[in-house]
Design goal:
By secondary structure, this protein is mainly alpha-helical. The chain has 19 helices and twelve strands. The strands form five sheets. A three-stranded parallel sheet has the order 1-2-3. The structure holds one RNA strand of 76 nucleotides.
RNA sequence: GCCCCCAUCGUCUAGUGGCCCAGGACGCAGGCCUUUCAAGCCUGUAACGCGGGUUCGAUUCCCGCUGGGGGCGCCA
């Protein structure tokens, strides 16, 4: 297994996992699992401005939530550690010195302000900005003077000036960029921190990454990284650039469209299974008509060859549908357990005082109605509320008078109170009998009763609801509803 | 502005020269079922961006255009 697949996901610790990065992680995971390879997690935290342990945990939490476990890397150990770039500075420094010594890199003293002015000028002249290699052209004396001055400097990579940088992408085919388009990019910042493109190349090589699978927004970075890797004498990994996820307006998925973090979807009551399934289908398809996949099924069905090139709009409606599919697919016990956090947040049940049986029976009635877990509090409110307050108007049966409706409510209460057994069949027989005695259609009677015991017009089936609610609650609510209707008639 | 990439129903997509007057899914509309709402089932709606080629024949190949996207940081 010396040449087995090794892939990595390298998030920067921003506290939240962007769904685009989640999709990239998923594809890396699927590819690794399918090939029997190794899935590695590296923390790319070379931007010291934003990097705390808490931020890392936030990102890792989302990976775990999706079920993407990594074999090697941050928190899992491995032979290529440490897996946090801020702890690998010595390695980058050694490579920087090597490039400096062999002329592939040079010091640059240009200040951010100077560069900014240059960029603006280039823009004014309507041409692409490229670092003019000012500091490369310094005379030995000038260079010595700057070095003596102790002024801060960065290290720039000396990009090739001729030819082109070519590679064959696993999803997009042959790609080429003319060397004249390449800039002398900064590889080490003032202060010694490496930049993304530099640290990434070194780590991918040192961690023996065989396939770099990342978003298409990195396409140009690949053209910039290849010369660096070559200058360092590294073997190149294979590359696969994934189509971008976009907003409905086709722009790169970002803040402007609301929820973009995995955590947002968890909070909105989406199941990880649905999110994973949905993300997998954005940019990839199995070649047949299957749409619902477990993570394991994805592992065997996935293939880089079937990844698309065109960007994909992140379509909430399809996610919602898939979420419903999964909600209906899990066991009632499982669903009830998943609803608990939302119910406790809504104040409907106390975390440590949940009547599991009652909760399970109530959830069972809403299972095929819920689109998200977050809907549970509102959907189940009447099961947990001390009382419901139906609008008197809704207690009046269709095509019947207020007085007649009041009578029906009272009779229903009386008859139900006398039932020997509180079961679906007995309740149904009782109420259908009442409707028939009244000369009403069943629906005419059932709707007011539904409103009386739940407070709303859209609910699970009436008899099941009464069974779960129990006789006591049902009778109390019928009584209260009758009183409310009576009051409104006067 | 410059460079690169992409282009099938509103959306996710199948399609690799004839099987396609383009298939599936979500959505939407209608129907069935039915005590409401759902779920389920059925039916319908809707697309190959445009113009040139190549070919007996183009959604499929080539070129151009148009449109869209990404990149152009001492962010990743």
């Amino acid at each position: 297994m010396g040449n087995s697949v090794r892939v990595r996901i390298a998030p920067s610790p921003t506290g939240s996992l962007h769904v685009g990065n989640a999709r990239t992680a998923l594809y890396n995971y699927l590819f690794a699992r399918q090939t029997g390879g190794v899935f590695i997690l590296r923390i790319d935290d070379t931007d010291a401005k934003r990097s705390s342990d808490a931020d890392i945990e936030g990102v890792l939490y989302s990976f775990r939530w999706m079920g993407l476990d990594w074999d090697e890397g941050y928190g899992a150990g491995g032979a290529c550690g440490p897996y946090r770039q801020s702890e690998r500075l010595g390695l980058y420094q050694a490579h920087a010195e090597k490039l400096l010594a062999d002329g592939h890199a040079y010091r640059c003293w240009c200040t951010p302000a100077e560069l900014d002015a240059l960029r603006k000028e280039a823009q004014r002249q309507r041409r692409a900005f490229r670092y003019p290699q000012t500091c490369l052209g310094l005379t030995a004396a000038e260079r010595a003077a700057r070095e003596r001055s102790g002024a801060p400097y960065v290290l720039r990579f000396r990009s090739p000036r001729e030819g082109s940088v070519d590679f064959s992408d696993l999803v997009r085919g042959d790609l080429s960029v003319d060397a004249t388009e390449l800039d002398d990019l900064v590889i080490v910042r003032a202060g010694g921190m490496p930049t993304y493109n530099f640290a990434s190349v070194i780590d991918d090589s040192h961690m023996a990454i065989t396939h770099v699978i990342r978003g298409a927004d990195h396409l140009y970075n690949t053209h910039r990284q290849i010369p660096i890797a070559q200058a360092l004498g590294f073997d190149l990994p294979a590359y696969a650039h994934l189509p971008l996820l976009t907003n409905p307006d086709r722009s790169k998925l970002g803040k402007r469209s609301g929820a973009v973090f995995v955590g947002d979807y968890a909070a909105q009551g989406y199941l990880p299974e649905a999110v994973v399934n949905f993300l997998a289908l954005l940019g990839w398809n199995p070649g047949d008509t299957q749409e619902v996949f477990s993570l394991d099924e994805l592992v065997s069905a996935f293939s880089l060859e079937r990844v698309n090139k065109a960007n994909a709009v992140f379509d909430l409606q399809k996610l919602a549908w898939l979420n419903g599919v999964y909600i209906r697919g899990v066991t009632v016990e499982d669903l009830a357990a998943r609803c608990v956090p939302f119910l406790t947040d809504g104040g409907f049940v106390a975390p440590d005082d949940v009547d599991r049986t009652y909760l399970r029976d109530a959830v069972a009635l809403e299972q095929e109605r819920l689109k998200t877990l977050a809907e549970a509090p509102e959907a189940l409110d009447f099961f947990f509320a001390a009382e419901v307050t139906p609008a008197p108007k809704l207690l009046i049966a269709k095509k019947q008078s207020p007085a007649g409706s009041l009578g029906a409510l009272r009779q229903a209460r009386e008859r139900l109170a006398q039932l020997a057994a509180w079961e679906h069949e007995t309740i149904e027989a009782c109420l259908r009998g009442l409707a028939s005695d009244l000369g009403w259609k069943a629906g005419q009677l059932f709707m007011p009763l539904r409103v009386a015991i739940t407070g709303k017009t859209a609910t699970p089936p009436l008899f099941e609801t009464m069974v779960v609610l129990g006789r006591a609650r049902t009778l109390t609510r019928l009584e209260a509803a009758a009183a409310a209707l009576a009051a409104s008639i006067e």
